[in-house]
């Protein structure tokens, strides 16, 4: 089983930190998964404009293929200006709606205000619902105060919620194998 840990931004470090923690928790599960962290900042992304797959650059083709070949996803996103980053939306626009169908997805997000967690409900979940993903019910939203000035995750409750989310994600992966 291939689990893609997707960092949906090209700036900042908090979502990277969250994905690294989740990768650690996934490695501690009884079920073993092949995990890959994708940081969009490491790719030369092109604006998706409807052209055929083979007309995008090599990095875009690789990103689309990584999405298509994954069996499950953890999507990490910051919340900017009350919205998901354009880079993440651009990647969603690049993949076929069939790519993520009936595949498990967990969500982690970070924002500057406590109210920005609503972006997950109003923007990200509807996109994932359109793709017909199996979205776990317990996403984890973090705030700047959950991190040290060095960018380390320091909040014990967030660690516990990430561990719990990972356990539920594992259950969703197991359920998806029966579809």
Task: Describe this entry's structure for a reader.
This is NAD(P)H-dependent oxidoreductase. Residues 1-143 form the NADPH-dependent FMN reductase-like domain. The chain is an alpha/beta fold and 179 residues long. The chain has a single domain, classed as Flavodoxin domain (Rossmann fold), CATH 3.40.50. It has 5 helices and 6 strands. Strands 1, 2, 3, 4, 5 and 6 form a 6-stranded parallel sheet that branches. The longest helix has 21 residues, at 156-176.
Radius of gyration: 15 Å
Order of helices and strands: EHEHEHEHEEH
The coarse silhouette is globular
Largest sheet: 6 strands, parallel
Pfam families: FMN_red
Protein name: NAD(P)H-dependent oxidoreductase
Organism: Halobacillus amylolyticus
Keywords: Flavoprotein, FMN, Oxidoreductase
Summed up:
It contains five helices and six strands; from the N terminus they run βαβαβαβαββα.
Write a concise keyword list for the protein shown above.
Rossmann fold, six-stranded parallel sheet, alpha/beta, 39% helix, single chain, 179 residues, 18% strand, 5 helices
What secondary-structure arrangement, pairings included, does this model have?
Elements lengths: L1 E6 L6 H14 L6 E6 L18 H12 L2 E7 L7 H9 L9 E8 L6 H13 L3 E2 L4 E4 L12 H21 L3
Parallel strand pairs: 1-2, 1-3, 3-4, 4-5, 4-6
